[in-house]
Amino acid sequence: MTTIKDSVHDHITIDGVAADLLDTPQVQRLRRIAQLGTVKLVYPSANHTRFEHSLGVYYLANRALEHLGVEGREAERVRAAALLHDVGHAPFSHNVEELLHRHTGRYHDDVDDLIVDSAVGDVLVDHGLDPANVAGLIGGDGQYGQLVSGELDVDRMDYLVRDAHHTGVPYGTIDHERLIRELTFADGELVLAEGNVQTAESLLVARALMNPTVYAHHVARISKAMLRRATERLIDVSDVDATTVRRMDDPALVSALRDTDETAEFARRYDHRDLFKRAVWAEYDDVPESIRRAGHDEIRRVERDIADDCDLPATDVIIDVPAEPEMKESTSEVLVNGEVRRLEDQSPLVTALRTAQRGQWRLGVYTRADATERVGSAAAERLGLDIDGALVSDVRQRLHVTLDQFEDGSPEENA
Asked: I need a surface site. Which of 160, 197, 288, 363 has the fewest CB within 10 A?
């Protein structure tokens, strides 16, 4: 048995299979992967890691299992899956996940290849657990997989509270103890018990407030976009392939970027926090649907065109198109008058939050500080942004096309 002092949940006691998994290389690697990736360039205290988050998820999973009365081997499988749920994360967490998925076909929760034939797999087998079954739980398979990966999972409960704690932003604070106490199963589905519509809504509100303030803060988005571009370049020009990147940690990736001529300039900018600036910051309805839905190759082509228009290297223009707004938590289920109902069908708050989420959506075009104005003008024309034929400089407020003096990117400017 091991007891660990945690900054969020106080003391976490670990025993059984989880205690033996703790010191495997796959779990220890998570100490070197930042939970929030490049967000620490905005919030200096956001240095927490996937390792401590995994401990928190294990703790909450254990609490949920006790509440639900799940014991024995099934409980051990879930505890193992909770501790291991992030072993598939690449460096800087989600920042390069889509890039690596294009090359490997795997997301961070596709972990069967990582735990079946590994030290993790050996520990699981020693405890009489099937590694493939544990990998399935991490992917959300089966009734108990919903606890690890689902709309009401303990992963979400921990990261909202933990991210709020370490950034100093209070919006992610939720009553996770009540959430766990009210979990129940109905027809094999994990739901919140009767009278807990507002409890479910608290998850929605916390996520909706944390997104623009932390996860999608403009400086965080710029640094993430630059990291993705540099990693893409690294894979294209060096002998480091996507599978290798997937198994790196944060320091290893930054070191590889520093040591490669074509990516060394990004590494310098990252080390010095000398980031690109916003040339365009455009709202959802100002961006044509064809651009919002454009594929990777099409966006890269437009970037090259904009760079050519401005006599810049192609690497000096980045178009950052977020995914279409979605709210997965709205599909969580709650018992109402004895019936299982989706939160989105029961809560009028969902509609309001979806409207707010769409209002927060922004397309970004980033470039070096001395080129923001000309890149902004060229990007508005190439992307077909809705500016009613006016000059970009005349519609800065509407499109949020910015000059360097208006965009410092410091944590104090979150508002």
From this structure: 288
The pLDDT value given to residue 393: 36
Tens of pLDDT, residue by residue over 207-250, are: 999 999 999 999 999 999 999 999 999 999 999 999 999 999 99
The answer to whether residues 292 and 358 touch, using CB atoms and an 8 Å cutoff, is no
Structure tokens at 265: 């300039």
Give residue for tokens 């094999």: 188
> Hey, where are the domains in the chain?
2-216, 219-325+357-413
Report the C-alpha gap between 208 and 171 in whole angstroms: 9
Strand order of the β-sheet with 317-320 is: 277-283, 362-367, 317-320
If you write DSSP's letter for every residue of 91-110 in order, what string do you get? TTGGGGHHHHHHHHS--TT-
Q: Per CATH, the architecture of 2-216 is what?
A: Orthogonal Bundle (1.10)
Structure tokens at 308: 């050519």
CA distance 204 to 209: 9
